[in-house]
Amino acid sequence: MTRVGDVVEVLERAYPPELAEAWDAVGLVCGDPDEAVRRILVCVDPVEDTVDEAIELGAQLVVAHHPLLLRGVHGVAADTPKGRLVHRLVRAGVALFCAHTNADAADPGVSDALADALGLTVVGPLAPNADGRTGIGRIAELSVAEPFAGFVERVAGALPTTAGAVRGAGDPARPIRIVAVSGGAGDGYLDAATRAGVDAFVTADLRHHPAGEHLGRPNAPALVDVAHWASEWPWCEQAAAILRDVLGGTVDITVSTRRTDPWTVAAGPDNTGRTQG
């Protein structure tokens, strides 16, 4: 019998809690480590949609990237959004485990999964920890350089479709071969990407002013802005593969395909004159 605690042990070997940022909240959120696990759902966001999916699947454990309770709380009353989720999970006998910045920094981690999805070969971390191996973001390579416009199309074709689509900032003809990637919000690593001498930086949640100021600097890489959820979704299959490899056929593991990106509608013509929606 595989227990919740057995799964937690596997995940914490792959994504050591000590790699998490000091402000983060990772690990087992709710659930009994001694309870049996037959089905696991892996997702980016622990939200109503994925809790629905877990209950429908008959899962005993949800493995999520984003924390449910990131900031300190004094209660989980069922008339609050997060408290309601905790109550639903507990009543349904579903445990919740979160691997956030520890999964970002691990080797392999979130950015390795993103680089792999884009057809890139990882050569090292973008912002390395003291060990030189783990850390946030990755520097990676294309086997052959391609124009920036084509590279942006590559990114759009590799990641799940979202209402916000994929945006590129830079010369469409610029040759792209060395790329920095950082799953999730990455504008705090714009300087690191520039220092690394990469041709392009792929991340999420880029803001107008930091992006504009970055592009005005010498040798600044071109930017590709993707949806936060889409940039981290490839990690789900990475985590699922780790669990399958260790737990064998004892547990059924499902990667959620429900789009939990909060943006649901886009309007206006795109570059081809078609309407997004």
From TrEMBL:
For this UniProt entry, which residues form the secretion signal?
none
Pfam families this protein is in? DUF34_NIF3
Answer yes or no on keyword Metal-binding. yes
What residue ranges are annotated as transmembrane?
A: none
Tell me the InterPro entries matching this sequence. DUF34/NIF3, DUF34/NIF3_sf
Going by the UniProt record, its keywords in alphabetical order are: Metal-binding
Entry similarity comment: Belongs to the GTP cyclohydrolase I type 2/NIF3 family.
Q: How does it assemble?
A: Homohexamer.
**PANTHER family in the record:** GTP CYCLOHYDROLASE 1 TYPE 2 HOMOLOG (PTHR13799:SF14), NGG1 INTERACTING FACTOR 3 (PTHR13799)
Q: Quote the protein name from its UniProt record.
A: GTP cyclohydrolase 1 type 2 homolog
